[in-house]
Amino acid sequence: MIALGRSLPGGNAQNIRWIDSFAEDFPINGGPFDLTVAAASIHWMDHSRLFPHLLANAAPGHVMAVISGDYPFEPPWQSDWHSFLVKWVPAVTGQPFDHDKRSEGMRSYQKYLNLYGSEHFVSEHPFQQSVEDFVSCQHSRDTFAPSKLGDRIASFDAELAELLRFYADDNQLSFVVGTRIAWGEIKLI
After folding, report:
1. Residue 92 scores a pLDDT above 90
2. Whole domain around residue 64: which residue ranges?
3. What is the C-alpha separation between 20 and 2, in angstroms, rounded?
């Protein structure tokens, strides 16, 4: 992500510091910062370490923004996807799949923020992706990482691909993408 960000217009601007580090342990050199942007992976982080560290290095008026969601928004395969998760999440994690609890966990960082606002966006135009690429992208998620699936990865891939092919046109899925942004200031805790 950092390489991509640097390659985009303005990515080498003097007022941008690119830091490659665990968020909880990033180096404190370079002075306070005005904006912190996090992605969906924030739910993997140790919030009790992360937010005090960010706050200690934030400039007055600092804003924290969290962008989450690259998910198909209400795709035609939603019901089948849910059934797939009900089967595979417990097989990998040992815990039952609970969509409401998962959603709550994905927002657990919010207790560390005084939220100014949040918005949900849905792409204007459908996104197209091959079935194979969609399946492959699932391995970027913690639950379905190759290290967690182990020797079950081929079965996972085959089952998900079979499910999705029913909804594909010439092996291409078409769906709109949902994204959410929330922003605020870090609380003194």
Report:
1. yes
2. 2-186
3. 8
